[in-house]
Amino acid sequence: MMTWTPLHGHPYEPIPYHPNRIPVEQALAASAVLRARMDERRTVRMFATDPVPEQLVLDAIAVANTAPSGAHQQPWTFVLVEDPEVRARIREAAEAEERISYGGRLGEEWLSALRPLGTDEHKPHLTDAPYLLVVFQQRYGLRADGTTYKHYYGDESVGIAVGMLLTALHLAGLAALTHTPSPMKFLGEVLARPRNEKAFAVIPIGYPADDSVVPNLTRKSLDQVLVRV
Mean pLDDT score of the chain, rounded to an integer? Predict the structure, then answer.
């Protein structure tokens, strides 16, 4: 297996790419199944403590790692947190920030937007779900000798990777939540991440609890989000 290294200054080296073209009928059938499966995806905040095969999570991270990125910099780091003590520290710090946020820091407009979701400062999912994945964005590249190089379109790149991660987890029968406590600086400190990384999202992963509930929400229809030109 080849090890990735930064490509700055390397010449363009094209290689053939000829994936098999899926027959139209087969493609339409697969597309319809995927659309139906993904329409079932919901953000879950109530997790069972049942164990989850680690390979399912590793495979989903591997899928996320195939995401396109600006200048192929792949500016992401996935930190899989299983240690109960570390997770307890993350929950304690996150809930401390959330108490301030829900206590007024967010402002009434933001709190009003959150109200239909039923969220509050309590974050049991951070310790209940069998896996906790913290996604970090590398703001710039950091070489072993301490020198740096620029990354491009970092927010967009990591956002796409997280979207692919959530898709892969759902298709594997798992539930997930994108939790973004604000501010998130404490995550880099608790997990001892290097100076070029900033937390992007905290993602509990597992199976929904037997008594799990979700908000009664409706997604926009295709007509509401699609513009034909």
Answer: 94
